[in-house]
Design brief:
Low-confidence stretches: 1-8
Oligomer: single chain
Distance between the termini: 39 Å
Radius of gyration: 22 Å
Mean pLDDT: 84
Structural class: alpha+beta
Number of domains: 2
Number of strands: 4
Strand content: 5-15%
Number of helices: 12
Order of helices and strands: HHEEHHHEEHHHHHHH
Length: 220
C-alpha cells in the first residue's frame, strides 16, 4: 500500500477533478503518477505510446502548466474515466496500482455525483437571479452596479469572499464555478432572503447588517 493511502492523506478531489458541466470529470497524468508510484515521464510515455487506443474513448486533452527540467513546457494530460482505466491496464500490477484502480473508480463516481448536483443547483438558481436582478433594478434604477454589489454580498455570506477573490483563488471566470453544490444552494437561499428584504423596503446597509448577522441561519 502506498504511503499516501496509508496515511489517508487524500480526498476524492485529489484523485478526480471537474470543470464545467461540459468538461465533465477527469484525472491527470500527475495524479496517476503520484498515486501509482511511477514517474510522470513514464505516464507521459504510456500516453504517447497508446495515444490512438486512449482516443477511442474521447479526444485526449492536455495543458502546459509547468516548465520541465529542460525549461520547456511539459504536457499535463487529462483523462476521462474510460481513458484513465485503460491507461492503468498498461501498467504493472503493483499494490499501489491495484489500490489506485479501486480508489479511482470511487472518486470518479463521487465527483460525477457532485458535478450533477452542482449542475442542478446552477439550473435552479437562474430564476432567482433573474427576479432578484429585476428587484434590484427597480429599487436602485440609477445605480447600474447595485446588482453586482448585492451579488458580492451574497457570495460573502456563503464563502466569506467576494466574486473577484473567488475568481482569483479558483482560477475561474464565473465566481459561481468556485462553489460546490451545497454552497450554490446556500447562495440561492441568501439571495432569496435579500430579495425579500429589498421588497420590504430595507436599505442596502440594513440588508448587509441583516444577512451577515443571519449568516449562520442562511447556511444552515
Amino acid at each position: 500500500m502506498s504511503d499516501n493511502y496509508k496515511e489517508g492523506n487524500y480526498t476524492m478531489e485529489d484523485l478526480v477533478m471537474y470543470g464545467t458541466p461540459a468538461e465533465g470529470v477527469y484525472t491527470t497524468s500527475e495524479i496517476v503518477a503520484k498515486y501509482t508510484g511511477v514517474s510522470v515521464e513514464h505516464v507521459r510515455h504510456l500516453t504517447n505510446k497508446y495515444h490512438d487506443e486512449l482516443e477511442r474513448f474521447g479526444v485526449l486533452v492536455f495543458e502546459n502548466p509547468k516548465l520541465g527540467e529542460t525549461g520547456r513546457p511539459q504536457k499535463l494530460w487529462h483523462y476521462n474515466e474510460q481513458q484513465a482505466t485503460l491507461l492503468i491496464t498498461f501498467m504493472r500490477n503493483t499494490p499501489a496500482v491495484i489500490e489506485f484502480k479501486s480508489n479511482l473508480v470511487e472518486a470518479f463516481y463521487s465527483q460525477r455525483e457532485e458535478l450533477a448536483h452542482k449542475t442542478i443547483a446552477l439550473a435552479n438558481i437562474k430564476p432567482v437571479n433573474k427576479s432578484l436582478s429585476e428587484v434590484v433594478h427597480d429599487s436602485w434604477p440609477d445605480n447600474p452596479h447595485m446588482y453586482a454589489t448585492i451579488h458580492n454580498l451574497a457570495l460573502k455570506v456563503v464563502t466569506g469572499k467576494n466574486a473577484k477573490q473567488l475568481k482569483i483563488m479558483f482560477d475561474v471566470t464565473d465566481a459561481k464555478e468556485a462553489l460546490n453544490s451545497s454552497q450554490l444552494e446556500h447562495l440561492e437561499r441568501a439571495k432569496e432572503l435579500m430579495k425579500q428584504l429589498i421588497l420590504n423596503g430595507y436599505s442596502y446597509q440594513e440588508i448587509k447588517a441583516t444577512v451577515l448577522k443571519e449568516r449562520g441561519a442562511v447556511n444552515a
